[in-house]
Amino acid sequence: MIKTQTKEEKTFLRQILPNYYRHMKENPHSFLTHFYGMYRVEMPDLGQSIYFVIMKSVFNTEKEIHKIWDLKGSTKGRRSKRGDSVHKDLEILDEGRKLQVGSNVKGAIMDQLKKDSAFLAKMEIMDYSLLLGVHLCTGEEKSPPSSPGSVESRRNGFTRSNTPYRREMKNTVVVNCSDVVIIENTECLSLDNKDDQRHDSDDETAYEDESDAGSFFAQISQHDSDTTSEFQFDLCSVFSSSFSPEKYSIMTPNPYSSREDLGIESFRGSGGANAEIQELYFAGIIDILQHYNARKWGETMMRRAAGNNGSAISCVDPVTYADRFVNFMSDLIE
Prior knowledge:
Elements: E1 2-5, H1 7-26, E2 35-43, E3 48-55, E4 67-71, E5 86-87, H2 89-95, H3 103-122, E6 129-136, H4 151-156, H5 164-168, E7 172-176, E8 179-183, E9 206-207, H6 245-248, E10 264-268, E11 276-286, H7 294-305, H8 318-332
């Protein structure tokens, strides 16, 4: 994934980078966004610079993602517009959906979510969300795999997201001079943000990159290197388990999934040979660069003064936000 940044986000990421690095190194299976690199493109003729990050896609799987939610744990205004491919908190509550993963897996997930949200609160970050995608299993998919498979097999073939919006983009009209050519069954690079990442600003753009994300290192412009040089070339190694089979074997096993694509399985049955996989869940915490600054503090005060319930509005202080986020996820997972 490639996502453009505002200047504020660029500055804030550099500010928290040492702490972020240490957290991800201590928590290799963190749900936080996995940043692989931060870059700047200068356009002297326009007198502008574009900042962007390269990060791991939440939906790095060939499985079809049938439904997607963006979950904050708040309820005020948390309903998607008609026709949106990404649903929100009120929809999943209305549906009564539960993520049935079993007590052991739930315990591991909640333990990591608590660590991640505590880190974000410490960094005074709020307004993040859990991007959740579900794949409904059918036919042979319901049988548990006999072996976890080879990480090398996924390394050799680039995996693209298979989300509702991506599937709509498969049939694309390409205009070349006066000719119009219809290209079928071609997955195009998306310049939209509807599936893999939610954005609050019109000048933010996300799309899939066709390179192996594991090959990128955190690179900061030369004049910025004084505060980040210690972490500049080692950041990617934190996430190399997703791409390097050599390092994968020596890392701690993933407590949520043994699958190559890291999908979390929902079983029906008593387990073992009689168990059936009903759904696969893909999840990650996104939008983790919103600092609770004076503007956000003012928004909190204004919304409360307007009579809104403090537990329902999205814009609250980082500690309150983290506690509410964890409680919402705990109620959602069984």
